[in-house]
Every structure is written in structure tokens, then in C-alpha cells.
Structures
1.
Amino acid sequence: MPGQRVDYETSFWEVLVNLPQNVVKSIWPTEMGSKNDRTRVQTTFNNLFLHFQSSTCTTETLRFTYTMGFGLISFYLFIILTITGILLMFYYVPSVEQAYARMLDLRSSVLFGDYLRNMHRWAAHAMVLFVFLHMARVFFTGCYYKPKEFNWVVGIGLFLLTLFLSFTGYLLPWDQLALWAIQVGTSIASYTPVIGPQIRYVLIGSTTLGQEALIRFYTLHVIVLPLAAAVLIAVHFWRIHKDGGLTHHPRNVTPDLGMKKTVTGFHRRKDLSFPGTTKTYGLLGIADASRPTVQRQLKDRVFSWPDLILREVIVFAVLFAVLTVVSLLIQAPLEEPANPAHPTNPSKAPWYFLGLQELVSYDAFWGGIGIPGIVMTLLALTPYLDRAGIVGKGVWFHRRRLLVNSLFGAFVLLNIFFIVLGTYFRGPNWEFILPWNLPPLGKG
Amino acid sequence: MSTYSSSHPTNRVPRVRKTTRREFLNFVTGLVGLGVAGGTALLMGAFFWPAVDVGPSKKFKIGRLEDYPDDVRVFFAEAKATIWRRGDTIGVISNICTHLGCTVATREGDFKCPCHGSQYDAFGNVIAGPAPRHLAWHPVYKLPNGELEIDTSVDLDPSKTKKAKSTHFIKII
């Protein structure tokens, strides 16, 4: 009825007073924090950015010497690289005339420009290292067995993406390193059987290196590859969650509850909801109890908040502190401007590609395509070929895995061997040289 | 006489299982979907194939015969090629390594690649390293004004061997 006064339940004054608290509640509608087990669960479960981890995890997951945090650190480095990369994009121009000058600008006239460029470069080097270490950790602890075979393959994809990202990244300054890396990298691609020269033509957008090549690798570096990596990372994490968290050796996860020992080893009892390799219980199960009714089953399990998440935050803090100090103290490499007539002598790739450079110095096809292709295919197929299975999983260097671990160990050692050989024992004209006779990098 | 019994020969269901309408439509839809996806992928691939190569010219003017000392191999940086005058002939040898395309250094008596250590003799024949074939020889032409021009897009000896079939010193008249 017009003119009639409407009775509100609360006064406008009250609405104003409660405004901040109501806004906060609208963003975080459920109670969180460490008050009781329910809020601990809700902290993880009701947060978009945390819920891809399960609400609880095993104490084994938290043991630092089990995972070393390598995968987590790789992920953090990806985040740091994304942020510093976006910042660098504001000052970078993907043009062969301007790119190098922009590097000098970053060094001299952009606030924190030098620091950001250093951090981006060192984080990229670190990411290659940590992704590799993570792969080695997963292998040596036997964590790719059923149902995680495919997640291992996703991991191989992420390793390759990391390498392509770092490769396309160090081309962008258009210095000597960039020019000769594109020259050599795309020439290796042209040794691909049947369609090699066509691949190179599409990669560099011309028959001669120049502007077309730079803009193509720039687009790959700033959007195509990072987007692909982000999607694969999401799949990688989601699969860990769906596959029941980290792989554990049966002896490390309460064998008296869900496992019974049989002649052939440990097996899960199918009918028991047990914190082993599948999801343990729904949120509903403990929603109304003062203490979770499943408490007895939570032996060897802790809530992700705070035990896991706080540890993750600490890892980030330490990582970022170390990266900051490194980036403040050590200049990222920048060679002379690109000069098509004179490569530097020796012309060396960054350390993680020196093993490959050593290999192609014997034969372009086998070193650059054949051997890497075979090795990566074998690595990707490992979970489908390896039969050491249930007994050997979840512990470092299990005896049952001696054969596969030795093979992978040989792969790691050969990698290190070729990288050391390429880094310290190759001088001008890629001739064998002793480390103390090496000329300084990037000169010549 | 209104119905046949089920055992009547004309009413017997054949043993061969028929494809249902649904299965057929699913199959055809899938086939069309694959075709569309493949076509799109092909067209996207074609998008990345530059219609025009905007690279720099492969022809270079290198001056006159008299500009070059007799029997000295001179590196012509702009063209990434080495000019070798012998009497009234000129030989042009590419400085692009046949291994992975680095620019090889013209040295007294040989060529040497700084990237992976390939080595060629003075005529560009492989003597060491991973290079799969000899350096290319380019043609040289005399322009009406007396200047010489080389064309680095032409390979006078496209054989895939480590040693070139012959040298290509071209007489300048």
C-alpha cells in the first residue's frame, strides 16, 4: 500500500555496523581455521585454491625426506615465472631491432627491472632442475604404478614443456645466445624424418632467421606454452587427488586397519573405507559430530590444514628468499647483440642443454632427435612396462626395483656426465679442453 | 488367417544382428566430427605456413675481380660466404655449416665451426666433425657495370657427400 511504512527486521544502522563482517562472510561463508576438526576440513574443502588437495593427508606425505618438496617447488617456480614474466612483458618488445636495447633498459632504467629479469632467468634454470629432480624422486620412490601410470606421462609432458619454455625464453633478448640457439635448435628440427625442413620453415616463418622467428617464439613463450603447462599442471594435481594422494608403501600407512598381509604381499580390503589409496570419507560424515566419528580411522592421517598447508607456505618462503638473494647478487647472462656472421667461439647453450649439444656434436639426427626421442618414449612407457609393482612402491630405492632404478640411475648419470663434459671440457671450436683452460663464457 | 505363427518362415528373425538406426547415426556423426576436426587442424596448420617469405635478398654484390687478392680466401660477412679468387676465376663457398647452420670461420687453409667442431678443408670438403656434407658452392655473375654478384640461394653441387664432386671456380671475362 503506498505511503505505508515497511517494517524491516534490522535497522539501517545495524546493517551499516555489520557490513564489513557480512561482506567477509559472503566471501567465506563457512567457518575456517583450527578451532575444531570440522573447521580444519572446511579450510581446505571450501577454498577453490586449496580444494584440489584432499582435506586430510597421511603423515607420510608430510615427511620431507620422502618427497623433498621437489614437485611443490617446481609448481612455485612456475607461479613465480608467470608473475615475473608478465611484469617483464610490460617493457619488452618482440622486435629484432628493439629486443636487445630493451634488455639494456631493464638493466639500467626500469625500477627493479634488473632484479625481475634475474629472477625470471634464475627461476627458469631452477625449474628445469627441480622438474628433473621431481621426476627422479618419483622414479626412485616407485610412485608411478597403477593407477598413476598416466599421471607419470603427464609429468613427462610437463618436463618437455619446461624445456621448450626455457628454450623459447632465452631466445627473446636476441643476443648471440638467442640467435645461435634458434639457428641450431630449428636446424635440429629440420633433421626430423620426412617433414623436417617443413617444420623448420613453420617454426621460423621464413627460410632465414629474423623478425618472423622472433615473433613466433615470443607467442609460443608468453601464451601457448604457459597455457599448455597450466592445463597439464591442473590435470597433474587433479589426478594426484583422484588417485588417492601420494603413493605410499603399505608398511607406512597403518597396516592393521585396511591392509591384511597375504602370501603375495599387502592387499587392500575392498569393503573398508580406509585412508589408503582411495578417498576416505565425505565431509557429511563428520559434519554434525563434535568429534569426527571416523576418528579411529584417522590414525596416521592429519588434516591438510594446518599441517600440510603451513609446510607448503614455509617451503615457498624459503624458496622465494633464496631466489631473491640470488637475483640480487647474480646477473642473468646477456651476451653481445646477435651477429649472424660470427657466432661466439665456443657457442654454448645454457647448462641444461649442453648434454644435448655434446650429443649433436657427434651426429645431428641421432643426438638431437633419435636418442632423445627414444629415451623420452621409453621414459613415458616406463609405468606400463615395469612389473615390480605393489611391493616396490612408495619407498626410496626398494630392493625389488633394483633393475629399473639402476637403468634410470644410469640415465641420470649419463645426463650429468654429458652436461659436465659440455660445460667444462669443451673449448673454442668445441674442442676437448681441460676446465682450467676454459675461456670466459660469451666471449670470442 | 489373420496372424502367422512365430515359426512361420516369413516371420523368422534372421540370425545376423542388424545395425540399429542409433548406432548408424552415432557412427556417421562421429565420422563427420572427425572430418571436421581434421579439416580444421589442416587449415590451422596452413595458417602457420607463410604465403610470402619476407626474408632478405639472397643476392649480394661483392665488388670487382680486382678487389680480391690472388689466391686468398676472403670472408664476405654480409653473404656468409667466402670469395676465393684464383687468377681470372672466382669461387664462392658458403660459410653456413651443413651440420646445424652455424657460420663457420674462414681460416688459412680450412673452415672451422665454433658450435660443434665441424672442420672443412679449403674447398669446403668435410675433414672432421659431425657435418654430413661439404659446404655449398654458389654461382657468381658479372653485372653490365663490371661488378660481380653472387647468388647464395643456388647450390652448384647439391650432392650429399662429404666431398664435393668438383670445385666451381667460375671464369670472369
2.
Amino acid sequence: MYFNFLRMELFRLLKRKSTFIILGVLLALTIFTNWFYCSVNIGMTVQTGDAIEEYDQAFEAGYDAGTQMVDPEEDYQMFGRGLGMYGNASVSELYNYNSSSGNVILLLAIWVALFIGDIYLSSSQKVYLNSNANKGAWIGAKYTVVALYTTAMNLLLWPMVLLSSALFCGDVKLSFDFNFFVYFLVINFLCIAFSVIIAALNDITRKRVPGLVIGIILSQGLVSLLFAVLDILARVIKLDLGEFQIASLSIANRLAVFNLSTPSKDFCWGVTVGAIYIAISLFFVVLTAKKKDVV
Amino acid sequence: MGEYLLETNNLVKAYSKDLALNGVSIHIEKGAIYGLIGRNGAGKTTLMRIICGLARPTEGTVNPIGFANNKDFYKNISAVIESPALYPYLNAYDNLKLKCLAYGIDRPGYIEEKLKIVGLNGVKKKVSQYSLGMKQRLAIALALVGDPEFLLLDEPINGLDPQAIVEVRNLFERLNKENGITILISSHILEELAKVATQFAIIDKGQILEELTREELLTKGTNEVIVGCSDVDLAESALKSSGFTSIRKEGKESIVIGDSNADVASINKILIEKSISINSIGTKSEGIEDYYLRLTSRKV
């Protein structure tokens, strides 16, 4: 029964316009983001004499402090008229910047809420769930499709980054190292956890809107902000948290801070956080399905 | 009495403090079109939801006598409960395709066959552009996927125009006669239900007031003879002595005889023999609607 439902949900996925529109929007956002990262020259906004002097001093200070600048004059010129701030980044690094920008989870939130919420909007549960017996199989199929689409989105982001890199970022620098592979697996898992939370909100409330609204809020890092405030409060009341940060419990926060050189210890913590969210979400989905009648 | 397909035993469904169903027992014969009659909020939808497994009863059981077991029962039933549950951005074919995939049906021409039954074969436009009648017909086609032996239809003629009502009614009769599908239909449009159903249950405030066959309903609901005469007391005693039992006086000059064997000629003869002058005599047929109203108002 599970595979029948899986085929059904995959068919529905492919028949939905939003499935492809969301990917189109991701492509547009990726192109825009990378154009901004690679082509927009922030130094160009510095025009007045005083400001130039301040930047001169800043560069000199950086040079004196032993930064990577080989030739201060050449580096200064690049800052003034050359490529943007990530102009020399590799595709993997650009992928990291795009992932951490929040575009992917924002679009995922919208897509998941539309895809799962659709079931409740059309009341189609009534058609497929005679006897309540097939609920488990359908839940499994729905969440499999959500995970598959999330993974597809993260995979498709790579050629999108590659394309925009070729368009705006000068030489295309490919690098397939192990760090990128691990980074991709971790952020994909976190994105799946995020999608599962949104899908669960739809399944628990059995409406489309709550998942959509809360999904957008979560993707914009407002929960990270809340956790950060809690962090500050914990310090104010002198609660000894050691090195632990409450903000690290937020998926959006993890996605924003992880990069190619994140220590494996932090990756492990991120995966643990994601797994906990998935487990809690699925627990409440199953509980709701068991306790409540089909609507 | 035919073979039963399904019976329910004292079904109770409570929502917080309200009882949507209160001890409902019905018996559906195999091959019947079972009409569930009741006003809005009487408990029809709740009963249907429980029968097809979408809701759990607080108490009582559903006993699918005509099926090998519960699994076999749920495999062989299909339902259209409340509004048609369709994906508006898909066309008719794709809506049916989804259910075929879920049921593992991969037979060529199967979907077209179901659409043809409801007259929607070849309709390419999306469901969002359908009229309510087309949606109802598509919902019925969707319910026919899996070739169910038992079909539950909740208010299937709601919102349909007269032409569509006739079409849908003919469809039910065809499905019942040609395909041998037992159908449970709920409706508050009583006269329409009376045209197709072979068994009836009258439900009000979560309770079954009466369960009867079409023949029983016809017997109960018709053949009242109304006599206008000068002496109703004398007429009453004359008719009682002739064996009529269901007699009631209406005012000082009318008497109503409700016995099933009451006919104008025999009553006329009895009264003339007793020298009772008759001002008027005629029959009054009571339809299902009158019967329903009488039954539910009696309860009130």
C-alpha cells in the first residue's frame, strides 16, 4: 500500500504547477544572489574624500596586521573597481553562501505548505482513507515525497549556482572535496527536518495556512532571534550554559552558520537537532492520525 | 426479507457534550438502495462517516455481514461524503488516475470506462472550471474506482439543477440494477429519495425513528379516505362496526379513515346503508414528506 500511495503522491507532485514554479523562483533568486555576491561592488559606494581616507586607514591597518593582502595598492584597486565580495569564490563556496541565505528553506516552506495543505483543502483524505487503516502508509508516502523534493531542490541548487557563477563570477572554480560532500549531506538533512516540521504543522492542524505562515516565519530566522534573546536572558540571570548556545537549537540558525570548514562536532550537533525535530514532528503527526477522525 | 449486507448496532457518537448519534441501528439489504432521510444535523453524515471508517463510534459496532471480514468490507466500499473531494487543478482523468495509483489499478481503458458511466469521458478542462453537477458526477466516478460493492453517497443531489437530478437518479438506478451495487444515499430532499430508494430509515436528532421498506412506506403513507357528513359520531360507529380501526374526526363535519383497505366505494356503501347523508367523499394521498413530518413532529 505504501508504494501505491508513493506513486500517487509522486504523480500529484509532478502535476502541481507549484513544484516547478518554486524551482523557477529558486533559479531566479540564485542568479540574483550570485550576481549580487559576485558583481556588485560595495567599494563603489565610497565616493567622498573622508570615507576614502577611512578605507585607506582600514586597509593599511589590515595590511599591518598581516592579513592576506600581498600588495595593498593592488588589493585596494580590486576593492574599488573589480569583482564583488565573492568574486573569486569557488562553486562550492557559492553553494554554501546560497544555502545559508535562507532562500531554499523559504521556498521549501511555501512548497510543503501548498503540497500537504492541498490534501486538507480538497478533503481528499475522505477518498483514500476508508477504514483508517491506510493512514500510516499515506503518511509514510507523503513524507517520503517531501524528503525527495527537498533533496531534489538542494541538488538542483548546484547547477543553478554553477550557471550563475559562469555568468557573473568570472572563472568557474569547481572543487569536489570531501568537506563539500559532508556539508551537503548535513544541510540537506537539516532542510528535510525543516520540511518535515512544516508538513507536520499542516497534518496536525489539518489546514494549509498555519503551515504556510509558520513556515515562512521559521525560514526568516525569527525563531533563531528568539533563541538568541533566550541566550542573552540566560546570561543575564547567570544561568551557566557553558559554551552551549540556545540558538544552536534552531534549524535556520544551523543552516546560516554552517560552512565548508565547520568542525565535524558542530555538524554532528546539527544532525542531532534535525533528527530530534523529525522525531517530535512525526510523533505528533501519528498521534493526531490515531486520535482524530478523518476530515 | 433479503440477505443483509450490513447492519449497525447501537451506534453512539459523542462530540464533547453533544450526541450526534444516539443508539443507531440500521439494516441494509444486499442490492438495496437504502435511503437515509433526515433534516440537516440529524446525524446522517456522521452515520455514513462511521460506516465507511472515516470516524470511530463512541459506542456500538458496524457489522459488515455480507463481507468476509472488515478488510474485505473496506476494500469493497466507496463513499462520497459531504462535498466532492477533488483536486481542482487536475482534470477528471488525472483525479481518477490518482485513485487508480493508490489502489494499484493499472488496466488500460479503466479510467475512461468510469468517466463514461458518469458522462465525463473526453472532458479535458480542469475541475476548477466544473459546475457543481459535474463535480458531483466526477465524485461518483471517483467512488466507482475499485469497483465497490457498496456505495455511500451523502446528499448527492444537493445543488443540482432539475436536469442533473434526473441524470444522477438514473445513474444510481443503473449502478444498482446493472452493476449490482448496494447504495446508501442520504438526503433531505425526500420526494427525490422516494423515487429511487427501496429501503428507508428516518433519522432525527441522532436517532432512527423508523426503518421500513418502500412497500411499507407506501402502505403507511397513503389511502386516507375523507368523508364530509352530517353526523360524524354515527359515521364513526358505523365504520368501526364494519371493521375499520384507524378513524379520526376532523372538526364536526369530517371523518378520516386511514386503514390500508379503506376505499371510497366500500365506505360510501356502509354509510348509505346506515342512512348517513354524505356531503363529500374523496381520498387523500400522504407522500413521504408528509409521513416524515408527521413522524418527526410526533416525536417533538
